[in-house]
Specification:
single chain
Length: 74
């Protein structure tokens, strides 16, 4: 599956959205302030850092391992 950076949620997690569905992925290991640039986030986060968070922005605080392989689209 392919994901694109969507933004920073209320937990300061970087959120990525699956380009073909409403599924959201992100990291609980790397947190960012709201002022963080997309470039900074994409230089820090790798596909291996991403967890499944659910179908809407700001859901599932801890995340679960993704079922499929993830590819970040920059």
């Amino acid at each position: 599956m392919k994901v694109k950076f969507e933004g920073i949620d209320d937990f300061n997690r970087p959120i990525f959205k699956d380009i073909e569905s409403n599924r959201r992925y992100g990291s609980v290991d790397f947190l960012f302030g709201y002022e963080a640039s997309e470039k900074e986030i994409l230089e820090t986060i790798t596909e291996e850092d991403l967890l499944y968070f659910g179908n809407h922005f700001g859901c599932e605080p801890m995340g679960t391992p993704p079922i499929n392989t993830i590819k970040i689209i920059k």
